[in-house]
Amino acid sequence: MLRMLEPLRHSxxxxxxxxxxxxxxxxxVAPIALAFAVLDLTHSVIALGxxxxxxxxxxxxxxxxxxxxxxxxxxxxxxxxASLAAAVSQAMTAAAVLMGFANIPLLVVLSVINGAVxxxxxxxxxxxxxxxxxxxxxxxxxxxxxxxxxxxMITGASMGxxxxxxxxPGWAIGGTAVVFLIASFFYARVDAPEIDExxxxxxxxxxxxxxxxxxxxxxxxxxVAALMVINAVMTGGIFVLGPSIADSTIGRLAWGFVLGAxxxxxxxxxxxxxxxxxxxxxLFGTALIGVQAVPLLFLAHAPAVVPLLVVMFVGGMAIxxxxxxxxxxxxxxxxxxxxxxxxxxxxxxxxxxxxVGEMAAGPLAKAFGVxxxxxxxxxxxxxxxxxxxxxxSVRSLVRHPDVQKPVERARS
Length: 412
Fold this sequence. Notes:
There is one protein chain. The protein has helices at residues 11-42, 45-72, 75-99, 104-128, 138-166, 169-188, 203-216, 218-248, 252-275, 281-288, 293-301, 305-333, 339-368, 370-389, 392-396. It is globular. By secondary structure, it is an all-alpha fold. Helix content is 80%, strand content 0%. Residues 403-412 have low confidence and may be disordered. It folds into two domains: 1-190, MFS general substrate transporter like domains (Growth Hormone, Chain: A); 207-400, Growth Hormone, Chain: A (Up-down Bundle).
């Protein structure tokens, strides 16, 4: 246990982790509170989709630029500025809702701002971790961050619904403004070394060089391509078709527990990953993603509470094993001054796939039936995983050996 928490002895990593966990807490509360605010205002699901979709579009469009900025400017400064901007936009949204002058165009604009600052901060936060701990602690550091983020997402989802129900969505949104201010405070105290402060910033040239860096390693684009398929399938199957199946079988309350089991599994998986990962960690983690096909099959043919709890828990553990192996592989093999751009291309691939899965699941289920659609999705997951796992570049990538040196206690 002490070995697992070793990265937290380093003050820069500790502050970065608190900032990231706090940010994810705010990002988990905000969309739930905003959804209730829009529904109270318009009683329209279409209006809600417009507001939420505006954020997603801004996020995808600006992710690549976020990667460029994070490779050229001080990453802690980017994170601090993004958190301050998020706090301001959330405070304005809360004021509009509480004071009664909220309208859909205003909420769309504020959602675009939130999507933009999220796009700027995501690559910087991911790429900053290896600057705050020794290389020997990278695996543990990534696991600690991911466990904190998973905990924040669980807590935030519960808090968002609870505060919105008890105090109103406006107050819940206002609370996220305070949360983002706290994150900004901790980001401001992360004094990480500069990456390449003298390098000129040429946005389009830097985006092209980021693409070259992304495509130069076959294992990177191979895994991202597979994940695009898997993310689209899982999003459509679990988050679109899943609730519909739950309504007619196990019920909404039980479905909430089923989804929670996945996050609990991810927390346990993070603990396991801090203590052990095989030499070919990326291959091992990629192969484990194939487990994601099992919940789809149970939803399609045997939607019962206990089996779903078990398979979702195991699926959460598998996702976390892959996630930590992926982060460590990128951080060990991509140059620090290009890492954020590679992360940004990775994020673009993931985020583009999500709305595709969400929009395709319903029409496919209507055309072929829910069970056939979920079964076909499970087959696609297995095929995508197999294609990535059998790629020579993925099979040959090995984890760098941990540096066996005593770690000095960082100053607080």
